[in-house]
């Protein structure tokens, strides 16, 4: 286990393999452990760095208001700590938001960007949106982490053959610090950088599950606003694509990174 400090917060990360660095950033309520099906495959080709963002996993959980910009600065500090020039960054859900934030604040740090089941904003645009956000905000405060874990397990992994994945969620989710978890949820609501997507000039891959929380059409819309982006839809998958479709996900990600490396004489981000 390795640690570094940024702005008084000790952050945990793990470092595997050799070569061009690939940084993996998890989502809300998750940790480095949820990249378990990616790290061995990617580390056979690249240097793989996984981080627990503040408030999660083995990182500190300061009693403060969290925001996506601070998470992005933590990732930027990790890149500086390891003396890296630029990285292939992969973020899922909240990790994708962190990737977008890093991309607009520090585009020079990204060799490529991969966004998984995420988007560049979480802002309500209709009464239905307001209702859904209010419902999630309220239930997250009323329900225990154990109850949320069981509901998430059924939602993310509904098939009989996914029982082991359901158990992972049910075991890991309650290990979160409830206060830090709620602060991270608050950081997501109302966040957005969609008006600055033109700053992200590096090759960008957007991966979406066909049964993600938000429809494929929403991803298609923002992909058109990115200077150099493509969309890949993974079928028979839900929000936790790296866990429920690891082979398809890994092959898609490796193909993309390999292509970026083959074309590395292009203008850097």
Automatic annotation (TrEMBL):
The record places domain AB hydrolase-1 at 21-244
- Full protein name: Putative hydrolase
State any single GO MF term.
hydrolase activity
Sorted alphabetically, the keyword list is: Hydrolase
Give one Pfam family, short name only: Abhydrolase_1
One GO cellular-component annotation of the UniProt record comes to: membrane
Instruction: Name the species this protein comes from.
Output: Metapseudomonas resinovorans NBRC 106553
Matches recorded under SUPFAM superfamilies: alpha/beta-Hydrolases
Q: Which InterPro entries match?
A: AB_hydrolase_1, AB_hydrolase_fold, AB_hydrolase_sf
């Amino acid at each position: 286990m390795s640690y570094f400090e940024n702005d008084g917060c000790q952050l945990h990360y793990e470092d595997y393999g050799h070569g061009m660095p690939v940084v993996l950033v998890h989502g809300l309520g998750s940790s480095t452990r949820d990249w378990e099906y990616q790290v061995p495959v990617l580390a056979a080709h690249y240097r793989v760095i996984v981080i627990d963002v503040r408030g999660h996993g083995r990182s500190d959980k300061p009693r403060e208001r969290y925001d996506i910009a601070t998470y992005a600065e933590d990732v930027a500090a990790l890149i500086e700590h390891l003396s890296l020039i630029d990285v292939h960054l992969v973020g899922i859900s909240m990790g994708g938001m962190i990737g977008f934030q890093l991309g607009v604040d520090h585009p020079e740090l990204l060799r490529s960007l991969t966004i998984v089941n995420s988007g560049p904003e979480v802002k309500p645009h209709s009464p239905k949106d307001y209702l859904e956000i209010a419902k999630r905000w309220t239930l997250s405060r009323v329900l225990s982490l154990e109850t949320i874990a069981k509901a998430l397990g059924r939602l993310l992994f509904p098939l009989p053959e996914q029982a082991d994945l359901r158990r992972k969620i049910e075991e890991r989710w309650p290990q979160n610090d409830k206060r830090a978890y709620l602060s991270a949820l608050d950081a997501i609501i109302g966040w957005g950088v969609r008006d600055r997507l033109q700053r992200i000039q590096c090759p960008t891959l957007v991966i979406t599950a066909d049964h993600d929380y938000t429809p494929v059409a929403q991803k298609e819309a923002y992909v058109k606003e990115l200077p150099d982006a493509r969309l890949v839809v993974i079928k028979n998958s839900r929000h936790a694509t790296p866990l429920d479709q690891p082979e398809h996900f890994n092959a898609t990600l490796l193909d993309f990174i390999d292509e970026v490396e083959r074309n590395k004489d292009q203008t850097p981000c």
